[in-house]
Specification:
Largest sheet: 8 strands, mixed
Radius of gyration: 27 Å
Distance between the termini: 80 Å
Strand content: 25-35%
Number of strands: 12
Shape: elongated
CATH topology of one domain: Serine Threonine Protein Phosphatase 5, Tetratricopeptide repeat
Structural class: alpha+beta
CATH class of one domain: Mainly Alpha
Helix content: 25-40%
CATH architecture of one domain: Alpha Horseshoe
Number of helices: 10
Order of helices and strands: HEEEEHHHEEEEEEEEHHHHHH
Length: 333
């Protein structure tokens, strides 16, 4: 029995030794490059993006994507030989500390640039920061008087973060995060494109390994959402200080900046409920639920600010409550 058992174990060991590795053998010692670049921007702030992937020992793939609020769609795929040529050029210069793909696409794949332009996505240079600083000045929503705003990049060893604040502050005490890129190595010089209410961040890193591992990605940030978050934060501070009128004004500004910002809608509904404006509160709560019903139900089921509203059957149905709050159930006779 011992001999049979030893023989079985040896067979199992041989079987395991012959199993195909989970990481492709042909990928060992090969460069890994995943880089994106802004090819063009539309007037509304959507982007045409070139996407190159050369990894896992597979043939390089170069594609043209269109990114908007609804997501991403692939429009063109470069011929394999062209993708391979672009990948070789990029890899030969791959340790340079800046994005490299955009000029290669413009020179080697002009069809992608022409296709983007035909659809209204035109090539634009990165937005220049203030001299000597990683900061960009811009104006907020016209409906709110175009409040002066400021974008700032904060880089660490592990992440690149795009922040929005109001001017003339910008000291970090009142900022909201718009976008974040995780870095896995030495950071590259980032680029920022501001267009049509959107900020597109291009950044990445090169891992300090013998074999080239390079990642450059594109992230979209909504300036309108950031401005709404700033006003929402002001409103919460006013609410905590007991100034309900000021809080209500700030929540209204948050909604004006971004009508689909669920936290602004929900907090405006709470402020309206506390101000005895029941119908306004219910209307705002419904608008918030149309954006994100699950979040509204989580926030509203035990919120003391909505205690009066939860007496209404329509509000309980909206919040997914099957029975009135315990304090509203009459005692038995």
């Amino acid at each position: 029995m011992r001999r049979l058992l030893a023989f079985g174990i040896s067979l199992l060991a041989c079987s395991e030794w012959r199993m195909k590795p989970t990481f492709p053998e042909e990928a060992a010692g090969r460069p890994v490059v995943q880089e994106q670049a802004i090819v063009g921007l539309s007037a509304d702030g959507d982007a045409a993006v070139a996407d190159l992937t050369d990894a896992d020992g597979q043939p390089p793939r170069l594609a043209l994507l269109f990114l908007d609020r609804a997501g991403a769609r692939t429009d063109l795929v470069a011929p394999p030989e062209l993708a391979a040529a672009v990948a070789r050029e990029l890899e030969s210069a791959g340790r340079k500390p800046q994005p490299l793909l955009q000029p290669l696409v413009a020179a080697r794949w002009p069809q992608a640039v022409e296709r983007a332009a035909d659809l209204g996505y035109f090539a634009r240079p990165p937005s220049p920061p203030e001299p000597g600083r990683e900061r960009w000045e811009l104006a907020g929503a016209a409906e709110l008087g175009a409040i002066p705003l400021s974008l700032r990049l904060d880089a660490s060893e592990t992440a690149l973060v795009l922040l929005l604040s109001e001017r003339p502050g910008g000291d970090g005490s009142d900022e909201v995060e718009l976008a974040r890129l995780t870095l896995g190595g030495a950071p590259l010089q980032p680029q920022l494109f501001v267009q049509g209410g959107a900020a597109w961040l291009v950044g990445g890193a090169v891992h300090p390994s013998r074999v080239l591992h390079r990642t450059v990605a594109v992230r979209r940030a909504s300036i309108a959402r950031g401005e709404a978050e700033l006003h929402n934060g002001h409103g919460l501070a006013d609410y905590a200080a007991g100034d309900l009128d000021a809080a209500r004004r700030e929540f209204d500004r948050a909604i004006a900046a971004d009508p689909a910002f669920v936290d602004g809608l929900y907090n405006a509904a709470s402020a309206a409920a506390l101000s005895d404006r029941e119908e306004d509160a219910v209307a705002l709560l419904r608008r918030a639920a149309n954006v994100d019903l699950a979040r509204v139900q989580v926030l509203g089921r035990n919120d003391e600010d909505l205690k009066v509203l939860r007496k209404r059957a329509d509000v309980r149905a909206l919040l997914g409550l099957k029975r009135p709050p315990r304090e509203d159930i009459p005692p038995p006779p």
